[in-house]
Write a structure and sequence with these properties.
The protein is built from 8 helices and 12 strands. By secondary structure, the chain is an alpha/beta fold. It folds into 2 domains: about 1-100 and about 200-235, Periplasmic binding protein-like II (D-Maltodextrin-Binding Protein, domain 2, 3-Layer(aba) Sandwich); about 105-195, 3-Layer(aba) Sandwich (D-Maltodextrin-Binding Protein, domain 2), CATH 3.40.190.
């Protein structure tokens, strides 16, 4: 499915747009469909503003998270977003602009489950997003946590449906998405922040000069307070001055 969107209220198709952006639509509050079916979210607003500053149009293509990496590497899309964490391993094969959000993982459970944190996961099955940092964390800590199993999903919604149905005991994923998703759903509870020190950014094919162009735009948007304004719009609070939402940083480089 392709969710087409361009700045200034204009709608474009992926064939007509200057940039095609891969995104896992359904990743609240970063990119998802609202009640009218429009694609909205923090990163949707950000990418559209970046395109506007570059004098370009943009269309979003809905791709499962695990498919975003080969999509940028093959040139199927020009860039990708979906709260993608910059890691040394990923920098070996793709490029990122400077980060714009600091995050951690989290454990979400049914409020009535009695689970209060990762210490209670012995013999339990957790859900994660395929190939995500939550997947990496759960896989690396399976023995330590005593997990009975890991179920992998393509996005938040199917994982939360399985959590509600009792098919998994907890869901390990990005904390901002889960805090946003559960704020009006008392049956769920985010019981633990799992500190991983993650930073999100826009992903590109390795060596693509577009990455540096976008990086320069992000520097300008931070200086103007635009990205801080998105944080306030989507999370209801101003970002701290010490976070990458506000601070200008260098483009990450492979070690």
């Amino acid at each position: 499915m392709i969710a087409s969107l361009a700045f200034g209220g204009m709608v474009s198709t992926s064939l007509a747009a200057d940039f095609t952006v891969g995104a896992n639509i359904g990743n609240v509050p970063w990119e998802f469909q609202d009640a009218s079916g429009a694609t909205v979210g923090f990163e949707v607003d950000l990418v559209n503003e970046v395109a506007k500053r570059l004098g370009k149009t943009v269309a979003f293509e809905n791709i499962p998270f695990n498919g975003l990496f080969p999509a940028v590497q093959s040139g199927r899309v020009n860039m990708a977003v979906s709260s993608i964490t910059i890691t040394d391993k990923r920098l070996e094969s793709v490029a990122f602009a400077q980060p714009y959000y600091d995050s951690d993982q989290s454990l979400t459970v049914l409020a009535a489950s009695g689970i209060t944190g990762t210490a209670d996961l012995k013999g339990k099955t957790v859900g994660v997003d395929t190939a995500s940092t939550g997947d990496i964390y759960a896989t690396a800590n399976t023995e330590k946590l005593g997990l009975a199993g890991i179920n992998r999903y393509e996005g938040l919604t199917p994982a939360m449906l399985d959590l509600q149905a009792g098919r998994i005991d907890g869901y390990i994923s990005d904390i901002p998405a889960l805090l946003y998703y559960t704020k009006d759903k008392p049956e769920f509870k985010v019981v633990e922040r799992i500190v991983t020190g993650e930073k999100y950014s826009i992903m590109f094919n390795k060596g693509d000069p577009l990455a540096a162009q976008v990086n320069d735009v992000l520097t300008a948007l931070k200086g103007e307070g635009f990205i801080a304004g998105l944080h306030e719009k989507w999370f209801g609070a101003k970002p701290e001055d010490t976070t990458s939402t506000v601070m200008v940083t260098d483009m990450p480089a492979a070690k």
